[in-house]
Amino acid sequence: MAIELKMPALSPTMEEGTLARWLKNEGDAIRSGDIIAEIETDKATMEFEAVDEGTLGKIMVPAGTAGVKVGSVIAVLQGDGEAAAPTPAQTPAAAPAPAAPAATGSVAPAAAPVAAKDPEIPVGTNMKSVTVREALRDAMAEEMRRDSRVFVMGEEVAQYQGAYKVTQGLLDEFGPKRVIDTPITEYGFAGIGTGAAMGGLRPIVEFMTFNFAMQAIDHIINSAAKTNYMSGGQMRCPIVFRGPNGAAARVGAQHSQNYGPWYASVPGLVVIAPYDSSDAKGLLKAAIRSEDPVVFLENELVYGRSFELPELDDHVLPIGKARVMREGRDVTIVSYSIGVGFALEAAEQLAAEGIEAEVLDLRTLRPLDKQAVLDSLAKTNRVVVAEEGFPVCSIASEIIAICMEEGFDHLDAPVLRVCNEDVPLPYAANLERAALINAEGIVKAVKQVCYR
Amino acid sequence: MAKPASKNSPAAKAVAGAEGDEVPALRALQQAFDANKKYAASDAELLTFYEQMLLIRRFEERAGQLYGLGLIGGFCHLYIGQEAVAVGLQSALKEGHDSVITGYRDHGHMLAYGIDPKVIMAELTGREAGISRGKGGSMHMFSTEHKFYGGHGIVGAQVPLGAGLAFAHKYREDGGVCMAYFGDGAANQGQVYETFNMAALWQLPIVFVVENNGYAMGTAVQRGSAETHFYRRGTAFRIPGLDVNGMDVLEVRAAAEVALDYVRNGNGPVLMELHTYRYRGHSMSDPAKYRTREEVQEMRDKHDPIEAAKAELIARGTSEDKLKEIDKRIRQQVAEAADFAENSPEPDLSELHTDVLVERY
């Protein structure tokens, strides 16, 4: 009985990987627990372990093949028939991890339409395609080279090279004094980082995800954000708290929340949530240099996407400035972080139907670039806010309030928000898909405000 | 009960790890302290301790009065009774080099670090001239110049922050240490133990100081703590402890010497427990139903740190006149601070929106 060995999913968000090498040859006897192959993703290299026993038959995907889709057949295992010792685990198609369903519909395709140029980047700058993950790493590395006070601490940031590989290579370059693995103790190390900033250093505290920063939120808010004010401007706290934020894929309610609105409600914090590689790098460098405490919200689903990054020696972008990602005259879609991808995708679809949407990426959630929102509103007279997060008391709520308080005369329609459903994020693929924001929802809302 | 495994058994080795289970320093510091409990202060040093403790006492009495007059608002936690702790410990630090951090009962620690009583009192009254320009209040005062880092209102938060300050000393290799104070109540916060773990793991130069005044607000230690010997609570992290009478400034100073010697030599943290007592309530609005008047009176009469220092000074030949003169001078200093605090203007309304962020974006 032949068993198909399928490309395993090694993480919740993995869609494809590289078959780095085969450790067994065709014809080799395979026992349960044998390492058959090594699989590489942009995050990690993992061993592919046999569950079933038999003889390795045909290898369908040769070593070194990149872009192998999760769930595709990579080899065939020939059963040993009656001669083999009875193994209870002989079920067909039992890959180590269940083959990820093709339905990872929550993952937006990297929409890359003709983007508006960032006015901050000099005309004629050479551009290079870089993943957000690399852009973030390079931002930290450059700032660590520039300022010996900068160090990074967090869970698995050093030897493991980062739970999401964002700190890859930093330990090798900067050593264990400046790239520090912490125990799993968010409250404690957030406090230690904050104290180190008060003591004159420039810490970058990585949270494996911002869900875990809930354990540490007291130090982010009560210790880091308020001290400058409480001390009458005497005691600064130049620290960056960073890590992935928002929903990943199929990780359930406790690992899937956007904390942007939480932090953005607190005076004393700077809150940044970039979308593409250029903003990730330019704004993280600015955050590290800032004298203020910064919450820097990344997104796991965007880490692996590639975007154009200007090749500049020192690419630093201004905090507190939104960016027009796509120009349009009919309606404004305000968004940030992963929502920008959906907004751009929606704008493409709308363009095909004759609606020219302007996409505004807030980039910084606090201080919020109100003027950019109002300027775009004055131009298009219609606004939809797209936010991957809960709808209640959201950034969307805030944008709507701003439009009403300060842009009322320019409004030709009520401002609508397109957010996740107001429920804890469910696990089941179909429910999760139904709960999360998508381009279709944005398209629908835009048509509504355009009365189309 | 299971028979304890023999020391050489595989189980014992597994528990102890490769380096064995003996950590002599866990007890060695206490032994060193027990061998010589009284710091041999010179007459001049003793006089300084006395003056500093008296300044704290008079300052706090005055603050209590100003609170009663409505000049100080909100929460105000007085340090009366605990003076020997801050004075004895901080006299062993290098002011402006070593860092100090504490909780909300912070007036005494500031005065013990030489910070001007005027700007402290003006902060209590919420005035522009206050050390936090009137924006912090009693619980939120800082002096980066003196390396006094607050003044923190969230119980226990100062412990990891203190470890961060210690981390910065170690990172910069400047030889400084951090002294982080917290109470017997804060000692039950989880983040304290997260910090113990990392401070010991990374050998941070920090002295953890539990000021055990017997009551976490209104909860007596034995009602809130399974292990009431706080100095033992570092043992699980291999942090040596010191059990110290916090009502005797010379004992406190002697223990500080032992602790700082250990920490400055790169051995990592020490946990000190200082047995002390606050004569006043937890804050100004404390009905004090949780203890008897007799208990408080007993401490005042028989264990007062200032009276003890005074007796020692007299025994060494200091004249009553000189002590009276000191008392008069300190009363005068505190009266001036109170006048200053009362007569300074409130912050300008334009200050409402300043200092939220350092930079403009």
TrEMBL record, chain A:
Which cofactors, if any, are listed as required? thiamine diphosphate; (R)-lipoate
| Keywords of this entry | Lipoyl, Oxidoreductase, Pyruvate, Thiamine pyrophosphate
Q: Which CDD domains match?
A: lipoyl_domain (cd06849), TPP_PYR_E1-PDHc-beta_like (cd07036)
User: What are its E.C. numbers?
Assistant: 1.2.4.1
User: Which GO MF terms are attached to this record?
Assistant: pyruvate dehydrogenase (acetyl-transferring) activity
Record's catalysed reaction(s): N(6)-[(R)-lipoyl]-L-lysyl-[protein] + pyruvate + H(+) = N(6)-[(R)-S(8)-acetyldihydrolipoyl]-L-lysyl-[protein] + CO2
Q: Where is this region: Disordered?
A: 83-104
Per UniProt, residues of the Lipoyl-binding domain are 2-78
The answer to whether keyword Oxidoreductase applies is yes
Question: A single Pfam family, by name?
Answer: Transketolase_C
Sorted alphabetically, the Gene Ontology BP terms of this entry are: pyruvate decarboxylation to acetyl-CoA
The answer on whether this UniProt entry bears the keyword Nucleotide-binding reads no
Origin superkingdom:
Bacteria
The record's listing under PROSITE patterns reads: BIOTINYL_LIPOYL, LIPOYL
> How would you summarize the oligomeric state and partners of this protein?
Heterodimer of an alpha and a beta chain.
Q: What does this protein do?
A: The pyruvate dehydrogenase complex catalyzes the overall conversion of pyruvate to acetyl-CoA and CO2.
Alphabetical list of NCBIfam families matching this protein: PRK09212.1, PRK11892.1
Recorded protein name is: Pyruvate dehydrogenase E1 component subunit beta
Organism listed in the record: Novosphingobium aerophilum
